[in-house]
Amino acid sequence: MPPASLSSIKITFLGTASAQPSSTRNHSALALQLGGDVWLFDCGEATQHQLQKSTVKMGKIQKIFITHTHGDHIFGILPLLASRLNGAGGTVEGVADPRAKASTSQDPTDVIEIYGTTGTRAYIRNGLSYTYTLLGSPYVVHELRFPSDPQSGDMTTMTRHTSELPSGRNIIQENGVWPDIFSDDLITVSAAPILHSVPCVGFVVNEKPIPGKIDPAKYKPDLIRTKTPMSVLRRLQLGESITLSDGTVLDGPPRRPGRKIVILGDTYDPSPILPLAEDAVLLIHEATNAHLPGIDTATKSDDTYESIETRTKSRGHSTPQMAGRFATRIRAKRLILNHFSARYAGDDDVNEESRKTMTAIESLAQGEFAGEVICARDLMSVDIEVPR
Ligand SMILES: [Zn+2]
Ligand SMILES: [Zn+2]
């Protein structure tokens, strides 16, 4: 029987700050909750603290995708692995330090899979090794190699950490993208370069075609005539064909496209991901800086939208308008902005001043995009529905 669809897809923003975190925004990380599984996208400093404040269960994290190796996107991965894989521990009174025997009692079925740009493997291997961190379960790192990167090797002479599996792949680009870096019965993940100040990628999470909508009235006369139990409607709904006792063949409704979610890292131009990103139900795009005269008191008198856009781009980032324009180009249904300058406080649910700023940022993006725009704040959760 073809697979059913995922019961739910939900995103929880764990950190929405750019370079500097603030009391209201942590560094970049978001959790994609697929039914009961959790995949993290980026893992800035203190992501594990944010997890503790959220409803996302750390123990459910199975995969971590890193968009680029800038610290604000990866500094949190070592402590998170230590906690998630029961490594760092610490001594409990009267009990030996669990780190002492962690490496000999690994649970081989609980593997964390990490995908990142070149250097992710070396960073994790060196970080864990130099801090004498042993883990209770293994991990593996797959790297997305740009054409200008070495196409093989580990980018470090340090030998593998005792918990690092040797099966980490170096994934080579095909036609400018990395198609299907992960795939199972329900979902595929692809990646593509996006332009930033350092090698950076965006990820496209694509639910495989899901069961179509069934109209039971269309099938009932045939089922009644042949005394077929109505329970076959469930099989038809999943797209199966059923042969009735009199030879009549009933075909279920054709499957329809699943949900496509595009999660970008930092960028001043994500065009290279366009062929993979079209018709997304959700685009998550950074909006580091905005021109907000009269609202942002730091606005200088000679600042114009153009000067802010030029400055923002020169640092590898985007404005809300740039995000809105890209959402329009890919015909996205919904746009969520993240990775905000520390100037834009993330307490807009309780603070009037912050609400004004974030509403203004939203409307700048909205000026370029007809779909729904949301400014993310830390610990905000969003359900991703199947489009009607
Ligand atoms: Zn960043
Ligand atoms: Zn960056």
Distance between the termini: 24 Å
Overall pLDDT: 93
Strand order of the largest sheet: 7-6-5-4-3-2-1-17
- Give the CATH H-level superfamily of the largest domain: Ribonuclease Z/Hydroxyacylglutathione hydrolase-like
At the fold tier of CATH, the topology name of the largest domain is: Metallo-beta-lactamase, Chain A
Q: Major sheet, described briefly?
A: 8 strands, mixed
User: What is the number of E strands?
Assistant: 17
Cofactor: Zn(2+)
Keywords: Endonuclease, Hydrolase, Metal-binding, Nuclease, tRNA processing, Zinc
InterPro entries: RibonucZ/Hydroxyglut_hydro (IPR036866), RNase_Z/BN (IPR013471)
GO molecular function, one term: metal ion binding
Structure explained in plain terms:
This protein has helices at residues 47-53, 71-74, 77-84, 120-130, 216-225, 232-237, 274-277, 305-314, 320-329, 352-366; strands at residues 9-15, 29-34, 37-43, 61-65, 112-117, 139-145, 170-172, 178-183, 187-194, 200-207, 241-243, 249-251, 260-264, 282-286, 334-338, 372-375, 381-383. The strands form three sheets. Strands 7-6-5-4-3-2-1-17 form an eight-stranded mixed β-sheet. Helix content is 22%, strand content 23%. Strand 2 (29-34) and strand 3 form a beta hairpin. It has 388 residues and is an alpha/beta fold. It folds into two domains: 9-84 and 173-210 and 257-383, Ribonuclease Z/Hydroxyacylglutathione hydrolase-like (Metallo-beta-lactamase, Chain A, 4-Layer Sandwich); 216-251, no CATH class. The structure holds zinc ion (2 copies). One zinc ion is lined by residues 18, 28, 70, 72-73, 266, 339.
